[in-house]
Design a protein that fits this description.
The protein is α/β, with parallel strands linked by helices and about 140 residues long. The protein has 4 helices and 5 strands, in the order E-H-E-H-E-H-E-E-H. Among the domains are: about 40 residues, no CATH class; about 50 residues, no CATH class. It has a 5-stranded parallel β-sheet.
Length: about 140
């Protein structure tokens, strides 16, 4: 049996689909991660969360789970903002998308800081999704 990951992670979930947000948060509850979850529903809320972190109103994220297709400010633009911000640009990111990975969609760095995962379509697939997140967190 795997040991729980003991360090408390501040996870920022940026997802516009309420169903996906619910399934991800419920799946995280079943994981071996020790975490605190902060949520935003679009790119503007993500940027606001990051500004609140800089102002010390929220803890700095240890992991960002970012949907690519967000309203108002797209996930690609949020990713660009993160990558160009000295405060944020070392934070590991899990990018979620309904589409298969296409390197033209995003520029992934080679530091192993970004993991691209296709969104699960079925409830059973969330188990595998959480295992990928746990594995990614162990490698951080």
């Amino acid at each position: 049996m795997k040991e729980p990951i003991k360090n408390k992670l501040n996870i920022f979930l940026i997802e516009d689909n309420p169903g996906d947000m619910y399934l991800i948060s419920e799946s995280l509850k079943k994981s071996k991660l020790f975490y605190q979850l902060f949520m935003g529903t679009d790119g503007s809320e993500a940027i606001e969360l990051f500004q609140q972190c800089k102002a010390s109103k929220y803890p700095k994220p240890d992991l960002i789970i970012l949907d690519l297709n967000l309203p108002r400010i797209d996930g690609r633009e949020v990713l660009s903002i993160i990558n160009n911000d000295l405060y944020l640009n070392k934070i590991p990111i899990i990018i979620l998308s309904t589409s298969l990975y296409n390197p033209d969609l995003i520029q992934v760095d080679h530091s192993q800081r970004i993991l691209y995962i296709q969104k699960p379509y079925h409830l059973k697939e969330y188990e595998s999704f959480i295992q990928k997140i746990e594995s990614f967190c162990r490698s951080m």
